[in-house]
Amino acid sequence: MKRKMPFSLSKEKSFYESLNDWIGDTLYDDLTEKGFECRDEQIYMAFQIEKALKEKKVLLAEAGVGTGKTIAYLLPAIAYARYTGKPALISCADETLIDQLVKEEGDIRKISDALQIDIDVRLAKARDQYLCLKRLEDAVDATSEVYAENVQSSLPDFVRGNLSMQSISPYGERSDYPDINDEQWKTINFHPVQQCAACDIRNRCGQTIHRNHYREAADVIICSHDFYMEHIWTKESRKRQGQLPLLPDVSMIVFDEGHLLEYSAQRALTYEVQNNTLLNLLERIMVDGVREETLRLMEQLIDLHEEFFRLLRANSNGNTTERKAINKSVELLSVGKETIAISNALLEEFVFEGELYIIPEYDLTMVEEYLEQYIFSMELFTSENDAVDWVEEAEGEMTLIIMPRLVTDILKEKLFSSNLPIVFSSATLSVGQDFTYLLDSLGIDDFLSFSVESPFDYEEVMDVIVAELEEGDKNDYVLDLLQKDEQTLILFKSEQSMKEFKEKVGEEQKEIAFEGERELSSMIRDFQSKEISVLCSYHLWEGLDVPNDALTRVIIYDLPFPPQDPLFDARRKHAENPFKEVDLPFMLLRLRQGAGRLIRTSDDYGSIHIPLEGQDKELKSVISGIFPVEIQTTIIK
After folding, report:
1. Could you give the angle at the alpha carbon of 161 between the alpha carbons of 160 and 163, nearest 5°?
2. Quick one: pLDDT at residue 546?
3. What range(s) does the Helicase ATP-binding domain occupy (predicted)?
4. 599: number of CA atoms within 13 Å, CB side?
5. Are the C-beta atoms of 225 and 262 separated by less than 8 Å?
């Protein structure tokens, strides 16, 4: 339903002329009178977005920290949504940043209060951010821990069927359960093998209710890059199956922290095969009355699948990286092809089983859908193609990952060929105001762009200290820093690096909080309120907004180079100079993002510490060029 425009339209002026006037009046006068800072960089950015809307172009909007990027894109987005009758979409780097954008003290609430505009903002989170009632039931039965029972007892009454469905309300988001850690959540959230369309309680499912809720948004829908990419890739197939797309049609898109979109696009096109999932699913349908031929094929597939993963483990390298490269031996590929043949034969048998109604319909549908994806994934793995594959292993669960090396052609077809205005917003879209790295990775040809600096006087409020250390001294250096009690964010290049630090500091460092111990947005709230003094994270390089004295020190534990894994190895293989074209631009962009967590407002102050060991010390002159102040060097022997 179209909402009232925030300004009057007339026959004398076009919508875009009226929008331009309203943006100027709002930023120069209305918001300034309400205590907002008047920032030339913010006003320039808003006018450039108005131009992109008018020309229906892709805009690369690089604006330094403190520009007020959120307000700069929100004003034209809200007006354009009401003009077109379709909501604007804001896509964030990850789920945590969604919660940051809509927090009580955030820019959306501030604009709404200052301009007396009721802004209809709704969240569209990825499917794994919602509780699954089916998996919750399984977890209650399978574990002796009380977390699953506590979640079950906290469900709204209508979920249990005790109230009319007229009284339903959204529930079941990850953020609703802040005290559950990430590993526990993974046992009760949505999993791709679940078949929602065939679920008998889907009308009471929190995910379904949330989907219906945000599809009615009038002004703004906020989602993650991962979820938007999943929407893009599944849109046509969902329509063919008689399902609604994950997101409704929108008027424009803002990719906040848009430099991370490529990785979300790749993840959305990724296929996974786990060693235990197939066995667990087939065991669910091995019920009394199943035909002998079907049972024989299921047992044969289980044996082949287990042999495939035994060979996969033997042919994956034994290093400590999270992603392990695979040697595609003749034997491994042969067994993989056999699993495909047996899986196809089994699918044919399931047609007859479905007519007998021996196997519960939901379970049979779930296995059939999984087998179809399993066959497609194994065909990708065993054939000659341009995909990248690797193995991951966590807590005994081995997973084969298959991902496309390039997504540029698909993005051109599915996203950039539309007549949709698209804004990439970030403080770090370029390396030295050169956008080539981003443009090449996304396949963008026709675009507008600009780059404006931060309005802050960094010389007065920020120190950057590089410590040159002997090999192995980094942990002691960081712990010595923490002896001085300050609100500190420690950033790690990977989860593995953070876990190694956690193991080395030991249990005595109880005042240090680590990402993953519980729901991240709740940890951020406690950090901002100073209930946590040291927060360790491998995700919060971008988007974290903790102003004033709630954050006065950022420690960059590692230079954030991309990992030595199959995905980045594939990119390096296709580069003339892998270090300069792949590793260095990635690291510098991410380092700028991490440093940008410190100074968020004109009242902020503090220090950034970068401990360097070994060969990293040779990069001091390179990284010094990305900071707005001259770095200070400390040599510790």
Report:
1. 115
2. 87
3. 28-305
4. 27
5. no
From residue 255, give the alpha-carbon distance in Å to each of 89, 223, 248, 420: 8, 10, 17, 13
pLDDT tens readout for residues 561-602: 988 777 788 778 878 898 988 899 889 988 988 998 999 888
DSSP run (H or E) holding 482: helix 474-482
Q: Residue 205: which of 124, 135, 280, 277 has the closest Cα? A: 135
Question: Per the structure block, which two tokens stand in for 133?
Answer: 């009632």
Residue 447 CA from chain centroid, whole number: 25
Q: Confidence class of residue 320 from pLDDT cuts 50, 70 and 90? A: low
Question: To the nearest whole number, what is the mean pLDDT of the chain?
Answer: 89
Report the C-alpha dihedral over residues 61, 442, 390, 326, rounded to 10 degrees: -130
Q: What is the pLDDT of residues 452-508, one digit of tens each?
A: 988 888 999 999 999 999 998 999 999 999 999 999 999 999 999 999 999 988 766
β-bridge mates for residue 90, sequence order = 222, 254
**Distance separating alpha carbons of residues 340 and 297, to the nearest angstrom:** 12
pLDDT score of 395 more than 70: no
Looking at 155-291, list the stretches that DSSP marks H as alpha helix, in order from N- to C-terminal side. 182-185, 206-214, 225-240, 261-268, 277-284
State how far the Cα of 41 lies from the Cα of 65, in Å rounded to an integer: 11
In 3D space, the residue among 404, 388, 377, 396 whose CA is nearest the CA of residue 323 turns out to be: 388
The answer to whether the CB of 75 falls within 8 A of the CB of 26 is: yes
